[in-house]
């Protein structure tokens, strides 16, 4: 994203803390899922480096968000109830859920994972009902083509991140919590899928029937694919957890069918998004410049790698493994480029 003229970027006050993007926890989401994907595929050293980096990033962002809420409450809560920026806050839910998953998968630290899971659940409840209630009762609302974007699907990602962390926690706890956590994971998985259908219908309508400028194709449109990828990951974990819960066993054909459905939908989006990216930067010459929203494009690449790996394992296909291995390195390259861009921007901002 570049230029202040883009409709996806709010007016800036010139104060870095006041202008802090509500979607900056996308950094935690992207780093965390690349770490998890690397661990799944046997790159433990890389996974742990990214894990410890992610802990530091998460703590820094928590402090910055708390300071922004204290120093600039009007901007902080105003962004939360604005159609263009409000959904960005769901990155805090998803980032917390991904970090909880890292603690459980990489370190087998169930206590830390459970604390972060509880925090993610609390954030999900507060943000979901605050943001969507505000969108409903507001008197002044933007038209569809100005109010909706791919960032709205972050609500789906946040919901499915809770499904994933709940399933991971259920696999590591005994009764009396295992059945309840699996039911919560299943419920979130189903609700996330329904929410995707609602939102994607509006986004696709906006694609096809309103004028679409290069500046409108913000990086969060990659969440079109990322939301389906994380839904695939959650479904795969539910399939693996089925022997622990009789009601999951009875739903196993349904779980398998819809998990493949989610994966196929996410896979369909990849060529489409690549073609739109070529149109944006190749034909329309829209320039590259670092923006926190680019983490919303890195995360889906890492999630596609992780979810395809787990799908191959859960469905016992045995022939998909080259695909997630390729996407791991694509995601890692995208993460490195975006991270370097972030550091350069911070350094330039500090010097100026």
Description:
This protein has 352 residues and is mostly helical. The protein has helices spanning 26-40, 44-71, 73-80, 90-106, 110-137, 144-147, 154-172, 178-209, 223-241, 246-250, 252-283, 295-314, 322-351. The chain has a single domain (26-351), classed as Voltage-dependent anion channel (Glycosyltransferase, Alpha/alpha barrel), CATH 1.50.10. It is built from 13 helices and no strands. Helix 1 (26-40) packs antiparallel against helix 13 (322-351). The relative contact order is 0.13.
Which features would summarize this protein structure in a list?
single chain; disordered N terminus; 13 helices; 352 residues; Glycosyltransferase; globular; mainly alpha
In CATH, the architecture is: Alpha/alpha barrel
Tally of separate helices: 13
Characterize the quaternary organization of these chains: single chain
Provide the CATH top-level class.
Mainly Alpha
How many domains, as an integer?
1
What Rg, in angstroms, do the CA atoms define? 19 Å
Reading the helices and strands in chain order gives HHHHHHHHHHHHH
Shape: globular
First and last CA, distance: 21 Å
Poorly predicted regions are 1-11
- Main pleated sheet: none
Which structural category do the helix and sheet elements fall into?
mainly alpha
**How many β strands by DSSP?**
0
């Amino acid at each position: 994203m570049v230029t202040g003229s883009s409709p996806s970027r709010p007016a800036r006050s010139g104060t870095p803390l006041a202008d802090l993007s509500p979607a900056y926890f996308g950094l935690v989401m992207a780093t965390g899922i690349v770490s998890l994907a690397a661990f799944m595929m046997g790159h433990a050293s890389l996974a742990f480096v990214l894990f410890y980096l992610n802990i530091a990033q998460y703590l820094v962002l928590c402090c910055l968000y708390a300071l922004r809420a204290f120093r600039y409450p009007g901007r902080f809560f105003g962004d939360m109830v604005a159609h263009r920026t409000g959904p960005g806050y769901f990155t805090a839910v998803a980032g917390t859920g991904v970090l909880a998953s890292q603690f459980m998968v990489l370190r087998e630290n169930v206590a830390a994972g459970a604390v972060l899971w509880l925090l993610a659940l609390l954030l999900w409840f507060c943000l979901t009902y605050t943001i969507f209630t505000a969108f409903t009762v507001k008197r002044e609302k933007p038209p569809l083509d100005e109010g909706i974007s791919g960032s709205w699907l972050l609500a789906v990602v946040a919901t499915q991140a809770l499904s994933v962390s709940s399933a991971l926690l259920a696999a590591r706890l005994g009764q009396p919590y295992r059945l309840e956590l699996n039911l919560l994971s299943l419920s979130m998985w189903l609700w996330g899928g329904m929410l995707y259908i609602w939102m994607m219908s509006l986004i696709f309508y906006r694609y096809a029937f309103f004028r679409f400028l290069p500046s409108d194709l913000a990086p969060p449109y990659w969440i079109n694919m990322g939301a389906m990828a994380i839904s695939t990951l959650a479904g795969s974990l539910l399939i693996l957890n089925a022997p622990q819960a009789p009601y999951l066993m009875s739903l196993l054909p349904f779980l398998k069918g819809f998990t493949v459905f989610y994966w196929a939908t996410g896979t369909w989006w990849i060529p489409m998004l690549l073609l739109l990216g070529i149109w944006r930067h190749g034909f329309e010459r829209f320039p590259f410049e670092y923006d926190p929203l680019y983490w919303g494009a890195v995360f889906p690449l890492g999630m596609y790698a992780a979810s395809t790996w787990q799908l191959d394992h859960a469905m016992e296909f045995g022939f998909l493994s080259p695909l997630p291995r390729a996407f791991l390195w694509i995601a890692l390259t995208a993460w490195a480029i975006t991270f370097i861009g972030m550091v350069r921007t911070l350094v330039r901002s500090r010097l100026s």
